[in-house]
Design brief:
There is one protein chain. The protein is α/β, with parallel strands linked by helices and about 300 residues long.
Length: about 300
C-alpha cells in the first residue's frame, strides 16, 4: 500500500493541500499547493479550483497515493461526500452536489476520497503528531472565524456519550444572550473594538499589535476574552476528564495576551491542565485529514463520521 496520502484543507477563500507520509508522520516537503477560490463562484469554478490544487500536489508528490482526505467546513455530509452549504455565504452553489463524484471526474488518480470536519481534522493531527500527542483526553480548539472544537480520546474523536456535549463540540452551547460561537470568535473582537474606538480592525492580529504597544482598551479585550473562555470551559473539561488543551486558529496567535487570564479562570474553577498552542498551525488540518487514508485509522473513525 502507498505510504503517501494527500490532505486538503478547504478554507473560506482557498484550498491548501499537501502530501503526508502516514508512516513517518511528516508532511512531505515541497508538495504544498495553495489555490485561491471564489466561494461565491459557480459549481464548475469551485470544483475546478479544488481539483487544480489537488492535481498540483499529486504531481509534486509523485509515486502512489493511498487516498485523499478533506478537512471540510460544515454543513456537509461527511460520510457520503455531499455538500450541504446553505445560508453560510460560501460555496452555496455546491448544495446537494456529490463532491466525490465531481472530483473523481476531474482527478487523474482513482483513490478513496474521505471527508471530516475541519476542526476535527485539526484535533486528529494534534493528537497524532502535534502538541496533544502526550495527552490521553484532549480538547482541541480552533479560535478564529468560528469557535471550532473537538474532543479526542487516544487520537479518536468523541462525538457522543455522557462525557461530551451534543455533537461532540462546543460552538452551539447557549452562552449569555446567544451561543458560545458568539464571544469566542474573531467577530467578537472586531465588533467590540469598533464599538469602542469607531475604527475597523482587519482582524485579531491588528488588535493584538495595539495591545502589545500598550493600548489599554485592546489589552482589556484580551483579558475579557481569556477570562470568559476560562470560565466557560471547566464543566466540559471536567466531564471529559481532559488532561490537555491545544489551541489553533488566528486568535491563538495572541495567547500571550489572553492565555494568563484563561488559565487563571480555569484555576479558580479547579482545573489545572496544560494549555498549548499548535506548532503545526495551518498544516494541522491537512495532516489530520490525510490520516483518513490510513486504513487502520479509517476503520476506527468511519462510523463516527456518519454522525458528523
Amino acid at each position: 500500500m502507498a505510504k503517501i496520502s494527500l490532505g486538503a484543507d478547504i478554507g473560506g477563500s482557498h484550498i491548501c493541500c499537501a502530501a503526508v507520509d502516514i508512516e513517518q508522520h511528516i508532511l512531505v516537503p515541497q508538495t504544498t499547493s495553495d489555490v485561491k477560490i471564489n466561494n461565491q463562484g459557480s459549481t464548475e469554478e469551485i470544483l475546478d479550483g479544488w481539483a487544480k490544487a489537488i492535481e498540483e500536489t499529486i504531481q509534486k508528490a509523485g509515486g502512489d497515493i493511498a487516498g485523499i482526505g478533506f478537512a471540510m467546513p460544515g454543513p456537509f455530509n461527511y460520510a457520503e461526500g455531499i455538500a450541504l452549504f446553505e445560508r453560510v455565504q460560501k460555496y452555496e452553489s455546491l448544495y446537494g452536489i456529490s463532491v466525490t463524484d465531481e472530483l473523481n471526474r476531474r482527478l487523474s488518480v482513482n483513490v478513496p476520497l474521505r471527508y471530516i470536519n475541519d476542526a476535527t481534522a485539526f484535533a486528529i493531527a494534534e493528537a497524532w503528531m502535534g502538541e496533544g500527542k502526550n495527552f490521553r483526553n484532549l480538547l482541541a480548539l480552533t479560535l478564529g472565524t468560528g469557535f471550532g472544537s473537538a474532543f479526542v480520546k487516544e487520537a479518536v474523536p468523541v462525538l457522543d456519550g455522557d462525557t461530551v456535549p451534543a455533537l461532540g463540540c462546543l460552538y452551539h452551547i447557549p452562552y449569555e444572550d446567544g451561543i458560545a460561537d458568539d464571544p469566542f470568535s474573531t467577530r467578537w473582537f472586531v465588533n467590540l473594538y469598533k464599538q469602542e474606538t469607531g475604527k475597523s480592525a482587519d482582524g485579531v492580529k491588528a488588535i493584538a499589535d495595539e495591545a502589545r504597544q500598550g493600548q489599554k482598551f485592546a489589552q482589556g479585550l484580551f483579558e475579557m476574552y481569556g477570562t470568559k473562555l476560562g470560565d466557560f470551559l471547566p464543566p466540559y473539561l471536567k466531564k471529559f476528564a481532559a488532561d490537555g488543551i491545544v489551541l489553533g486558529g488566528n486568535v491563538s496567535g495572541a495567547f500571550d495576551l489572553f492565555g494568563p487570564f484563561m488559565k487563571a479562570a480555569m484555576h479558580r474553577a479547579g482545573v489545572d491542565i496544560p494549555v498549548a498552542v499548535s506548532a503545526l498551525k495551518e498544516n494541522a488540518a491537512i495532516m489530520g485529514s490525510a490520516r483518513l487514508a490510513d486504513e487502520e485509522y479509517w476503520n476506527s473513525v468511519k462510523e463516527l463520521i456518519k454522525k458528523m
